[in-house]
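To whoever is covering the structure queue this week,

Two jobs came back overnight. Logging them here so there's a record in the thread.

Job A:
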Amino acid sequence: MTTFPRRLLLTGGLGLLGAGAVTACAGAEPSAGSGSGPDPQGAESSANTDALGHVHGIVRDPSDGVVLLATHYGLFRIADHVLSPVGPTIDLMGFTLAPEGRYLASGHPGAGVDLPEPVGLIESTDQGESWTVVSRGGESDFHALTADAERVLGFDGELRMSTDAQNWETLAIPAPPAALAMAPGTGRIAAATEAGLLLSADGSSWETLPTPQLVSRVAWADDSTLLGSGIDGRLLTSRDSGQTWAASEEPVGEVVALGAGLTGDGSVEALLVVGTTVLRATEGGNTVEQLV
C-alpha cells in the first residue's frame, strides 16, 4: 500500500462545479504521456490513466469489491493498481449502482456505439459489458444520477425522478446539483449545489445543511454517514446526516469524483479522483493511498 501526506496532493484552481460539471464533456483523444493527475511519488504519471479523459464517477461494486470509474471514454475497473476498460466507449456523464447488480448511466455514445445521442437512461446487468436504453433515449443526458431500490433521480437541466425508470416526474430544487447521492436505506437525497449542500426526503422539499464550506461532491457511506469534498480540497465527514462535520487535517486536492462506503470493520472509506489520480482515504481523509 502506498501512502503519502495529503499536502502533496493539493492542486490549484479549486471550484465548486469543476470542469465539465454542467456542460457536455468536450473530448480530445487520449495520448501517451498526457496524464494530468497529481503525482505524489515524483514519477511520470502511469500511462494507463491517459485513457480516462475526464472522470465523472467512482464507486465500489459490492458484489466483487472492485472499484469502478465512469469516464469520458467508458467504464474502467481497477484491480491490483491497473486500469482495465469494460464494455463500449460511452461518455458516462452520470453513473450509479442500483440494487440487484444493476448499473445505471447516462451520457453520450462513442464512435460506432449503437445508442441514441444522448443515451438517456441506460442499464447494464452484466457489470458494464453491454448497455441497453431504459428510457429517455435521445432526450436526456443526466450529468448527476443516483438510485435506490425504489427510485431513480437524475439531473439533465431539470431534476427528474422515476419509480419505474420509465415514467419521470419533474421536481423543483433551489439550485442545479453538481452531484446527487441517495442514502442506501432511508433514501434521503443529498445534493451538492452552489446554493449549499441540500437534503431532501422526497426530492420535492429541501433543507440546507450547515456545512463548514461549500461542497463540490457528496456521497453516503451509510444511512447516517455523509461525505463531501470541500472547495478548499479537504474531505468532510458527517456521522449525523449532515448536522455536524469534521474536516481532514490537510487538503487532498480538487475532487472530481467521490464515492463512499463502509469497510468490513465498519470504518468509513472514501474513494476520490483528483485529476486522474485515484485515491482511497480512511480516518476522515487523514490516511490516503493511491489506487492508480
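Job B:
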Amino acid sequence: MVYTARWGIVATGWISARFFVDLLVDPSTRGVTDVVHTPVAVASRFVAKAEKFIADFGNGVPGVKAYGSYAELFADTNVDIVYVGTPHSSHYEDSLQALRAGKHVLCEKAFTINAAQARHLADYAKSHKLFLMEALLHEEKIVGNILRVTSDLAHRFVPDVESRLYNPYLGGCALLDVGTPLTGVDESTVITMVWDKPHIISTATCSIAVDSPEDCLVRVQGDLGEIIVPISTANPTEFIVKIYATEQGKEDEVNTFRDVRDGTIVDDIYPAEESAFVMEMFDEVRRQNDFVYPAEIEFVEYE
C-alpha cells in the first residue's frame, strides 16, 4: 500500500523553495515505491508571498493552499506533517506550535537555539505520540566501524550588518549558521572531540571568512573505507564511496517517512534526542567562548 505524506511548508525562503522543488520529484526515480509526497499548504506571514511561492515553485501542482499565517496552516486538517523552514531563531516556537496542533514535524537545521529548547520539543513530541526529526541519515555501515569524521562547512560572505546571517536575534553565527564579529557573533568556529567509547575522532570547522573546498566538505572514515560528501551537504547530488583500493560515485536517498506511516514516533537512526545532544555540545562551545544569544530567542515555553 502506498503511503501519501501530506505536507505543509512553513516559510517561503530559499531553503523552503529547495525543499518544495525536491518534494515534487517522483520518489520512484530514487527507487522508492511505497511512499509519495504531496504538498497541500504553504504559509508565510503574508498570503501574497505564499501564493507567489506556490506559483514560482509549484510546477503546476493543483490544490496547494496559501496561508497568510502559520497558525492557519497548523489548523489545516489536510496537513499531516509540517516542514519548518523559518530562521532557526524561530524553529523552537514554530515547531512547538505545529506539535501542539497535532502535526508531525521535520525541522531544518539548526534544530533550535539551545539544548533546553531541543529537549522540550523531543519530550513533547514523544509524550504526544508525534514524529519529530531534524535530519535524515543512512543506517548502512558500508565503510565499517567509524573511526574519524571531519567537516569543513565554510562560505565567504560580504559583511552586511543588515543580513540575517549577521543578526544575533535571528541566531546568526558560524556555529549555528554563519556570522561575523561586526555584530558580536562568531566568524569562525572549530570543534574537536574525542569519543572514548566508540573511539571516534571528530573535527568540525565553520567560517564566513573563507570557502570550503568543493570536492570534500564532509569525510566519514571507517575501517573498511570512507565516504566523501562534496558540495553541497544540504543537498548533495552524490556520495563518493571509497572501499579499500576502489572508488565509485554513488547516489543514495534515505526515506524515513515510513516511520510516520507505520506509527513509529522516534526514529531509530536519528531520534530528536540526538538533536538535543548536539545542541548540548553547541551550548558548551558557546559557553567556553562567552557567547550568548539574546534572551528573546533563548527562552523555553514549558507547559
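Note for Job B: The helical segments are 14-23, 47-57, 70-74, 91-100, 115-127, 258-261, 272-288, 295-298.

Please reply-all if you pick these up so we don't duplicate work.
Q.
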